[in-house]
Amino acid sequence: MRPFLVYTASRLGLFAVTFGVLYLIGLHDVFWLLVVSLVVSGVASYVLLSKQRDAVSERISKGRER
Questions:
Q1: Distance of CA 57 to the CA centre of its chain
Q2: Residue 15, Cα to own-chain centre: how many angstroms?
Q3: Which of 6, 35, 49, 65 is the most exposed place for a label (fewest CB within 10 A)?
Q4: Residue 14 banded pLDDT, cuts 50, 70, 90
Q5: What is the pTM of this model?
């Protein structure tokens, strides 16, 4: 359960940081702020969180083997 929590918290943290940075640089329209934040944080998490994602998938596959 721990790898899943770490990965989820990391994804949420990346989204919050992206949201905050985009807001500070001048993107104030809420709809576009959410959309751009989701896209940018999704791409960043794909690149930056590969170890955590691998740990989650390993944990899931071990659970299915039982």
A1: 15
A2: 6
A3: 65
A4: very high
A5: 0.85
